[in-house]
Amino acid sequence: MLTLEHVGKTYANGTVALHDFNLTVQPGTITSLVGPSGCGKSTVLRIISGLGHLSTGRLIWQDNQPLHRLAYVFQEAALMPWATVIDNVRLPLKLSGVPKRQALERVSEAIAQVGLEGFERVYPRELSGGMRMRVSIARALVTHPTILLMDEPFGALDEMTRGKLNQDLLTLQHQQQLTILFVTHSIYEAVYLAHRVVVMASQPGRVVADIAIDSPHPRDPDYRTSAQFNRYCREVSHCLSAAMGESLALAL
Description:
The chain has helices at residues 41-49, 85-95, 100-113, 129-141, 159-176, 187-193, 227-251; strands at residues 2-10, 16-25, 30-34, 56-61, 70-73, 147-151, 179-183, 196-201, 206-212. The protein is of the alpha/beta class. It folds into 2 domains: 1-65 and 147-235, P-loop containing nucleotide triphosphate hydrolases (Rossmann fold, 3-Layer(aba) Sandwich), CATH 3.40.50.300; 79-145, no CATH class. Strands 5-6-7-3-8-9 form a 6-stranded mixed sheet, sandwiched between helices. A hairpin with a 4-residue loop joins strand 8 and strand 9. Helix 2 (85-95) runs parallel beside helix 4, helix 3 packs across helix 4 (129-141) and helix 6 (187-193) packs across helix 7 (227-251). The longest helix is centred in the last third of the chain and has 25 residues, at 227-251.
């Protein structure tokens, strides 16, 4: 789907966010990025989305992938409080000039995909945190993206809600063969969702491990208690601990 080659990002104040960052994202897969705060995970998503610019290296899209086929889900749902669910989901289509009749068909489809039928006329203040995040995901899906960037979308939710949304995301990805790049601080979430877990270190941000999760996909909740899941979690945890130790040594 896309490749980042020797990407570097240095901010105006001299902070090096990324150095020699390399990543290839295969179509129809979920790739999780994990690493300590400040390692550049969100910077990677911003560069891919066009919200940020790289300082060195190259971003290569397969077949010149157009940006309008890309969608971004942020850590906060970022909904318009004065607008109903249906109007929040319709927003990107409205901004793109999609005719209202066509847009509403797509909005209804997206709302159904995230299980919010019956809540079309409800306002964000009347929804739980998990439901607000579902609206945010529906707003991304309504554009029919081929790649979905997700920046810690479930980080502020309770474990039960987070687990349910993890499961729903796996179902959506499998049904639509979405390509997803998923940033998380949770090792367990990263392993559960992903085909690959990319471990990053900070100061500067870089890849220190790229671990293929060779388990059947999509997964069911029983996978979380399997020996294979625990083995992958230990492997990612070990790589992350080593990366954090290396970053601390560099800082000193």
